[in-house]
Predict the structure.
Amino acid sequence: MRPLLKVEELTTIYETGNQRIKAVNNVNLEVFEGEIFGIAGESACGKTTLANSILKMIKPPGKIVSGKIIFEGIDLLSLSDDELRKIRWQKIAYIPQASMNALNPVLRIFDQLFDVVKAHKKDASKEEVLKRAKELFASVGLPANVLKMYPHELSGGMRQRVIIAMSLILNPRLLIADEPTTALDVVVQRGIIQLLKEINKKFGTTILLITHDMAVHAQLVDRLAIMYAGKIVEIGSVFDVFKKPLHPYTELLIDSIPRIGEKKRLTGIMGLPPDLGNPPPGCVFHPRCPFKVSGKCEVVEPSLKQVSKNRWVACHLIKGEESE
Amino acid sequence: MSNLNLLELKDVTKTFTSGFLFKKKIVAVDNVSFSIPREKASIFVLAGESGSGKSTIARIILGFIRPDKGEVLYRGRNIFSFDSKEFTLYRKEVQAVFQDPYSSFNPVYPVDHILSITAKMISRDENKDIDKTIDEALISVGLRPSEVRNKYPYQLSGGQKQRVLFARALLPRPKLIIADEPVSMLDASLRAEILNLMLDLKTKLGISFLYITHDLSTANYVGDYIAVLYKGSLVEMGPIDKVISDPLHPYTKLLMSSVPVPDPLKRWEERISTPETEAFHGTTSGCKFYDRCPFRKDECKKDSPPLKSIGDRFIACYLY
Amino acid sequence: MEVINAMRNNNTQRHRTIIRSSIPFSRNKKIIFSSLAYVLFLLFSYIILITFPPNSRGIGYAPPLLPPSLQHPLGTDTLGREILVLLGDAILNSSKIGLIAATIGTLAGSIIGFLSGYYGGKTDYVLRLFTDVFLAVPSLLFLVLISSLVRTVSVEGMGLLIALFSWSWPARQVRAQALSLKERDFIYLSALSGESKIEIIFREMMPHMIPWMTANFVNAFISAILTEAGLSILGLGPQTEMTLGILLWWPLNNAAIYRGLWWWWAPPVLALLYLFFTLYMLQLGITEIINPRSKVV
């Protein structure tokens, strides 16, 4: 089956002064239609840069230096700005971090929705948009009177729902959401997670979920990719990744999450995240890896290899890629 | 008698008025009472979401805000009636670590600056070498002095900064540390070290903590006792294992069931109702959780339920 | 965003912290260049005054309205005075006025603004009202009014007069700074670490306010010089001494442009422009340091 979105050998760098940082380092990914795909990783692992790169929204000092983003068979990176604009919001919608705070404070919700539609479909009429907005609001659990309100009159959770509705208004095939639940209270968070699941089921929207919160991934996604220092270190179904993590980083990361009901001492991961301007040779995780094989891990960078159907790992310890 | 308590809050209430002409009153802290015992070091969790009043309570305890009603007793004495000498002592014995390691340092100075200042809090009385004291404190939080001394805040990672802040809090030899969301801005893999640090400081140095958080998973990991706040009021209190495994108050139940479990095999089955109603801190009578409570009755609307004790737990709900 | 933060953490050269010492000041090209340009200007004026005899600024020193020559580099004015010498006097006196007005204005304004923001409540209410009134009032009109009532005013007096309207903008800026600073986590922690209120104000807050105060100072300086020029052109300046404004008043009141006596009106105009651009560049440099984002990478 052909993937809806295929990221091929994507590398995005940031260049300032004398430093050249590979924020996204040779990333390969496939997202299939109808699934919820999660990208997990801690701060500065590159997941937001990856999301921005997909829609070619990287501004200087950042630069996409190589790779392809193939969506519906076309490489997005080869498109002009005008052509890309037709894809953004209509085919691929993007909810950036903290976007619920980015609503225009001086416009009513409906006006903002209408502006979005008008920007992409010049011939849209207010009646059409109103009808669609009402339908959509009902789907996301918002009462229709919210359309007449201003953003400051709404709570954080409601604003997030508005943002989600806004992103769906042109019926995109793919929704990319970056930290949609961070900064929300836990009860509200549950509502949003539920909502995303329902949207996926009801409308068939493919969702690319980016968050550092592993528990959210566990509750929501079908498949999961783990990022570390700009590279993908593991991909698999959410069950496989959580129950049988292959990459040492994944295993340690999952182990460092406190779980209610368990009181055993957590270990965390020793050491510090790497200096992206001067990354360690070989496997970028090796200075912190308790399983490293001296001689190999410090010298040779492991590439992402498929170990079984729907399972990829970038680690020398995992069989399935003997040939080097 | 209150002499048995390290810290005790009695009916503490704080109201904020906002707006110029149309004065809006927000009761941030509504008649909150709890106590942290003295005999054994413990970690007391103050749990609540945004708008629950937990940060205001922290500031009141630290003496930055005066409550409108009620008392804050340290070892039995009201802190707001302290003279300057007693208050100086209070500041030594009750310290704090805040949420944001980035804004907790004055970016103009290296991290040594605040460490030396704090170290001088005790060095005025005792003749001790300040450098040595600082180094010892840094080591006790798992840092090598050489990796941190004379560095500017931007040169250290979030986890390192937070450890330095704990070291700073330890310098005056406190009995109680108010930790306001100390790990929520750190990566998951770094949280464990800070949480473990807190546990170690409790068992090895006998320091009690007031751990303020919205994250029940970390609360469960470090806490001994928990008080749950909702919109400024205390709704449930008790030993943490009991409250978490068997929540009594409808809000606590909702809270516990909404914590996402990091296990794909344990996904939520029921759907919760959408969406939450607007945050409303008005001076309405009755239980604040009325609008969202699946068990509400008419009597809940009349007067807000008082805190009742049931065994070793406290609960403010008419169901009990 | 996080990637850039990570980079910043590793980059010891460029850092986004607000001033910790004068090092960022001395590395900024605009500041170095403009400061040098201004100092040279002052030096130039001083040299002129030493070189030429004191009576060259007196009436009848030379034949009137002579065009520039080797003997009289900028020619003479209608009273036979050496224009180059008058220019030297003017530059120094205008700078003096700028200095007096800016110093008093920035200091007084910063103190008022700080008290207002730090204490809040009624103090803030009263001081803010006071500040806003002075901000809203059209300063030039009031200065015209006051100047015309006061018969003669000295250079120093002019400085003081302009200072009256130079303090309100610094007050507002410093108030905003104080308001934002006092709520920062590190200020609370300083209190918890045993620092007294005075120590917190001067040790913790001041380093953050100094860059703003400096920018305000330069701003007030330029503004004062231009205000003085405006008043003097109207004939309301310190007539007994020479300032750039008065140096302009003479040719304007004697139809110098019409008569083609360019060496009479061009020097003060050019001097004012030079001062303006130099000091404006200085201000841009300072602003760049305060707000690194304004600088394009």
User: Anything to note?
Assistant: Residues 38-63+74-292 of chain C form a domain with the MetI-like fold fold (CATH 1.10.3720.10). Chain C has one domain: 38-63+74-292.
